[in-house]
Predict the structure.
Amino acid sequence: MAVHLVKLHAAPDLVERVYQALLDAISDGSLPPLARITQEEIAQQLNVSRQPVLQALRLLKQDGLVLDAPGRGVQVAPLDAAGINAVYQVRGALDALAARLAAQQAQPLDPALIERGRAAALGRDVNALIDADIAFHNAVYAASRNPLIQRSAHLHWSHIRRAMGAVLQASTLRESVWDEHEAIARAIAAGNADLAERLMRRHGERAGEHMTRHLDAAARRTGGTEISTGDNP
């Protein structure tokens, strides 16, 4: 499938950069579920050799984001309601704990995080929206002063990023997400741990519910069963 990717240049972290470029394309829908990916096409698009592409595809396969395609190459793994629900269960628990701990210290978040998110919500760049969302949640993790929360979240980050991309492509949610973020930030700054935890938990539940409804409806329309995003989403 033809997809426009920005060319990369040689660097020590080239495999990681190829991985990130492909993850971005999967997350923003440029490479949709079941899209076929070939080493040759990606190498040409990114202006790199086939070796870093092969290694990046192996990592994506280990993460459950791509699957072997019939014949030759690989294809993007479909999203499924159960996989998304599992992602948001993990993320929701971690985020709610982080919000509570941050609020217990009345740790204010940088207002620029909300401004950046609202600006991204007005645009069409899904990856900019994802980056802004991740920056907000990372700030909450940092404010919790519990490094294990952020490390635990990062174990699932590729699936979280993909799930976020699928949710944020729905324009109706883009601005309301940042209304919720702002309310969470206020509760944290005010030191209201119960409210911060409750708002954060509901924030994650709402996004997960929206996505599972969307995927269930899509599965009913196609009459098929979606494939899991991986054994460990």
